[in-house]
Amino acid sequence: MLQLPKVIGHRGAAAYAPENTLSSFREAHRRGATWVEIDVKLTQDGVPIVMHDPSLKRTMGIDRLVAEMRRDELPAAVPSFEEAIACFGELGLGCNVEIKPCEGREAETARATVATLGRCWPARSPPPLLSSFKDASLVAAREAAPGFARALLIDEIRDDWRSRAEKVGAAGVNTSGKRLTAPRAVEIRRAGYALSVYTINEGDVARALFGMGVHCIITDAPDVILAAIT
Ligand code: G3P
Ligand code: MG
Questions:
Q1: CA 59 to CA 61: how far, in whole Å?
Q2: Which CATH architecture has domain 7-229?
C-alpha cells in the first residue's frame, strides 16, 4: 500500500503563514510536518506555479487571473513549482502535489507538473503523491508518467468512487474529513487504498478519524494534530 505520513501540512502550514508560499512550507517543517500539500496550476505562459485560487485577489490582493498572467508578472511571493521543490529538497519534505488546473487546462497542467517532478524532484526525498479533483488531470499524469503515485481527490464519496479510482490508476483516496462516513472509510481501506482526509484542524476530530481507519490527516495546523496523536 501507498506509504503516507500521518500528518500533511495543508498549503504548507496555512494556519500560521501565507498559504502555498515558501514561508508556509518552512513553517510546516518547523511545526513538525514531514510532508506538505500544495496546489499547482499554470501561468499564461505555461509555467507551473503554486497557487490555490484561479485569481490572485484573495491571497495577493491583485484582481487578476493566473491564467491571464505570465510568470514574470506574478509577485515574487508566488513560488514556481520548481522553487517549491527546491525548498522541499532543502528541508527534506515530502509533498502531496494537488494538480489544480485552470479551466480547460486539465491535461496540460498535469503534463507540466509531472515533467517538472521528473526533472527536479530530489532522488533522496520520499516519492511525491499526485492528486486532483479533475480525473482528466490524473489520467493525463498517468499517461505521461505512470510511476508517480496518484490519489483520487473527491469531496464526497459516492458509489462510483471505485470505478473512478481504477480509471485513474489511484493508489489512494483523498476526501473531506467532515463528510467521510465510517462505512465508506471501511470500504476504501478494505479495497486496499490509502485514505487521506482534509482539512482537519482539531485534535479530537483527527483522533476520531484515525479511529475510523483514516491513514493521513491533511491540516492547516500540523503541530496541533501531531500533539493530539502523540
Ligand atoms: O488536497 C486536499 C485539499 O487541498 C483539497 O481542497 O480546495 O483546499 O485544494 P483545496
Ligand atoms: Mg489543495
A1: 6
A2: Alpha-Beta Barrel (3.20)
